[in-house]
Design goal:
With 504 residues, this protein is an alpha/beta fold. The protein folds into 2 domains: 213 residues, YjeF N-terminal domain (Rossmann fold, 3-Layer(aba) Sandwich); 243 residues, Ribokinase (UDP-N-acetylmuramoyl-L-alanine:D-glutamate ligase), CATH 3.40.1190. The strands form 2 sheets. A 10-stranded mixed sheet has the order 8-17-16-15-14-13-12-9-10-11, sandwiched between helices. The longest helix is centred in the last third of the chain and has 23 residues. The radius of gyration is 26 Å and the shape is elongated. Keywords: ATP-binding, Isomerase, Lyase, Metal-binding, Multifunctional enzyme, NAD, NADP, Nucleotide-binding, Potassium. InterPro entries: Carbohydrate_kinase_pred_CS (IPR017953), CARKD (IPR000631), Nnr (IPR030677), Ribokinase-like (IPR029056), YjeF_N_dom (IPR004443), YjeF_N_dom_sf (IPR036652). Its cofactor is K(+); Mg(2+). Homotetramer.
């Protein structure tokens, strides 16, 4: 699913009007109908609900006027509040003319702001994606007033004051919506951590926008859902064998951190790898043999840490990092791995392998093409050596990092972002806050290792499928345990069902 810029979104509306032979007013009516149906179906509004519709002078305000008219037709009594302006869009004016006289309209001012009791519904239709600068003056006063109430706020297309394509200056006046209704596609702004309190729960409402325009429009960012991954995970042929799905090597664990190796190994096996060998320090041999009998254990000569790299010839993919520790000897193993892996052997680096890269920065230049890195935000900051100024700057850093080092980088978090060597970025749709628990990243590493060992998959497809299935496993697990009760081991149990949903 593509994430369009604000300018591309406006062009999409115009392309739809031209391709379908409709007027912009008819398209606005479609959008309003989608909003009205969502309000009635999802919020189950009582006819006694106090409804306030706040309308700006542009097409976003026109949407609000049309929704108010439709709610009135459905038997509700919305109150409309108009932001004074010298100029209004043509479709706003046409919808203003169509508004029944029975709907009460008032003009907003600093002295006339709506009283919004708890239980009231506010439809925010002040400003949409066309906003290019922070709000000030009366609009800012209105937004601050709205944010101080206990009313339920639903934003049409965008919370007013939120910029679609750029970071917000500190202290900007932005509506704190409980729900945001986006037309046809989500917005990149919805996926930024600092915007979460403004966007609330967001929903995409299809309104029949021109699909050929969307298909032919080049974008830098994608939102990955199940439909986006259709056909990327092939079914297993009847005469497949364990060699078909690759032999993987996992370098993980140290004294006191063997659980990370166990979690990653179990996830790799549940991810469908043909064969798995785990290199752990000698202290982990018995633990691994008893905890993961399906894997082959290859103990290191050292008792507490991994100190030697085994011969790589048998392996299609290698992962290194979970619970590894940051000993000097482990850094040397990483150095050897980068030198010997070559371009034909897939690499996945996580956790302490990333910390070693940050400490020994000269190794970044030795990453084989298409290596997959899986940092969380702090690990990524250490990799770049530069704190991000804001969420958008971090995405620029991610894009530049992947291009420079010819790698894939999984920046973990809500809407995990996958950076690619060629520039496009992919945001994941699955997962939940319950996955913010120790070991979750180790599970992702194991799953990535399994899919990178599968020679049927491209590096991009393997990364997209792993990130999505990891989050989906978390969603399936949370449905059983609740988010608070979710532990990393639960994710492993649901990898199979998550992958099964994607097969075909």
């Amino acid at each position: 699913m593509k994430l369009l810029t604000a300018a591309q979104t406006r062009a999409l509306d115009q392309a739809t009007v031209e391709a379908q032979g409709i007027t912009s007013l008819e398209l606005m009516e479609r959008a309003a109908t989608a909003c009205t149906l969502w309000l009635l179906d999802e919020l189950q509004l009582a006819f006694s609900t106090e409804i306030h519709v706040l309308c700006g002078p542009g097409n976003n305000g026109g949407d609000g006027l049309a929704v108010a008219r439709q709610l009135h037709t459905a038997g509700y009594a919305p109150q409309v509040w108009l932001l004074p302006a010298d100029k209004h869009s043509a479709d706003f004016l046409l919808n203003r003319q169509q508004l029944p006289q029975a709907i009460r309209c008032q003009e907003l001012s600093a002295r006339r702001l709506p009283m919004l009791p708890a239980g009231a519904l506010v439809l925010d239709a002040l400003f949409g994606t066309g906003l290019t600068r922070p709000l000030e003056g009366l609009p800012a006063t209105i937004v601050k007033h709205l944010n101080q109430t206990e009313a339920t706020v639903v934003a049409v297309d965008m919370p007013s004051g939120l910029l679609a394509d750029s970071p917000q200056p500190a202290g900007s006046a932005i509506v704190r919506a409980h729900h945001t209704l986006s037309f046809e596609l989500p917005k990149l702004a919805f996926l930024m951590p600092r915007n979460a309190d403004f966007v609330g729960e967001w929903t995409v409402l299809p309104i029949g926008l021109d699909q050929s325009f969307i298909h032919n429009t080049d974008v830098d960012n994608y939102f990955v859902d199940a439909a986006s991954l259709a056909g990327r995970l092939p079914r297993r042929a009847r005469f497949s064998h364990k060699g078909t799905f690759g032999h993987a090597l996992l370098l993980a664990g140290s004294y006191g951190k063997l659980g990370a190796a166990v979690l990653a190994a179990r996830a790799c096996l549940r991810g469908g790898v043909g064969l798995l060998t785990v290199r752990t320090p000698a202290v982990g041999y018995t633990v691994l043999q008893m905890s993961v009998p399906e894997a082959m254990a290859l103990p290191d000569p050292s008792h507490d840490f991994v100190t030697e790299l085994p011969e790589l010839q048998p392996y299609a993919a290698v992962a290194m990092g979970p619970g590894l520790g940051q000993e000097v000897s482990s850094a040397e193993v990483l150095r050897q791995l980068l030198r010997q892996a070559g371009s034909r052997r897939a690499l996945v680096l996580d956790a302490d392998a990333l910390n070693l890269l940050s400490t020994h920065r000269e190794l970044l230049g030795k990453l084989p093409p298409d290596t997959v890195l899986t940092p969380h935000l702090k690990e990524f900051e250490r990799l770049t050596g530069e704190p991000a100024r804001d969420d958008y700057h971090r995405l620029e850093q991610l894009r530049a990092f992947c291009r420079e080092h010819r790698c894939y980088c999984v920046l973990k978090g809500a809407y995990t972002a996958l950076g690619t060597p060629h520039g496009p970025m992919y945001f994941n749709s699955t997962g939940n806050p319950g996955m913010s628990t120790g070991g979750s990243g180790d599970v992702l590493t194991g799953l990535l290792l399994a899919l990178r060992a599968d020679q049927r998959l491209s590096p991009l497809d393997a990364a997209l499928l792993a990130v999505y299935a990891h989050g989906r496993a978390g969603d399936l697990a949370a449905a059983e345990t609740g988010e608070a009760g979710l532990i990393a081991g639960d994710l492993v149990q649901f990898i199979g069902p998550a992958l099964r949903e994607l097969e075909g």
